[in-house]
Amino acid sequence: MERDIEKYIQDYRSSDFEKVMVHYRRKQVLQSINKYPHCRILEIGCGEQPLFTDIADFEEYVIVEPASSFCENAFAVANGKSCITVIQDFFENRVEDLLNRQFDFIIVSALLHEVVDPKSLLDGIYKCCTDETVVHINVPNNQSFHMLLAYESGIIPRVGELSDRAKTLQQHTSFDLELLKNYVTANQFEILDEGSYFIKLFNHGKMQQLVDVGILDSSILDGLDHLIKYMPGLGAEIFINAKKK
């Protein structure tokens, strides 16, 4: 069953702290992009802020995004550039159309946990890869600092289950790094590098309250991101970069 995209957009936009997470998620994706060749890029699900606005040196950029409002924004931001293509559809419906594009880099940001069948999505991505294509995937981390704190505080009964917010956003799979790696390697990818980013103290709602009253300002938020070097596996989200075996 496909997600209710319009409801997803409404719920996504009502989650204020998600804007902060988008900033740090974007930072991590761009770091990965800059680490590998990226002349021809495929972004699967661009959300409200397509990444091409922060990448100066690509030759071709393709977005596949099912939400009409996100596509309309991407079209507007692309400003008629012929090297940027925006396709409104679910990626799984367009795999055959993308097979000959020869992408250097594929972005799968904040998506794998939301699809009903992650293996099917990864199968489609694999088909679109050359032997040199690098795939970046990031998802929420069910072993993050804030999830472990919630468990040890008695707020949640166990670690690893989908939160109420995750269910509201129509998410289907709760990932830790090992599960993410298992999915990726089972689909015939090898892991190039991996990690997590941004130490989140509490859930989105409580974090936004702390932002609203000025306790969490930009310097503290950056500090929480920098804390990852002391707690490398406890970030709010996890990522891997991979390529075909």
Taken in chain order, the helices and strands follow as HHEEHEHEHEHHHEHHE
User: What is the CATH topology assignment?
Assistant: Rossmann fold
Provide the gyration radius in Å.
Answer: 18 Å
Rounded mean pLDDT is 92
Helix content: 25-40%
Query: What gross morphology would you assign?
Result: globular
Spatial sequence of strands, sheet with the most strands? 3-2-1-4-5-7-6
Span between N and C termini? 31 Å
What is the overall number of helices?
10
How is the quaternary structure best described? single chain
User: Which structural class should the secondary elements be placed in?
Assistant: alpha/beta
CATH superfamily grouping? Vaccinia Virus protein VP39
Number of strand segments? 7
Uncertain runs are none
Description:
The chain has 245 residues and is of the alpha/beta class. It has one domain (5-244): Rossmann fold. It has helices spanning 5-13, 18-35, 68-78, 95-98, 118-127, 145-152, 164-168, 177-186, 204-212, 218-226, and strands at 40-44, 60-65, 84-88, 103-109, 129-140, 189-197, 237-244. Strands 3-2-1-4-5-7-6 form a 7-stranded mixed sheet, sandwiched between helices. Strand 4 (103-109), helix 5 and strand 5 form a beta-alpha-beta unit. The longest helix is centred in the first third of the chain and has 18 residues, at 18-35. The model has no long low-confidence stretch (mean pLDDT 92).
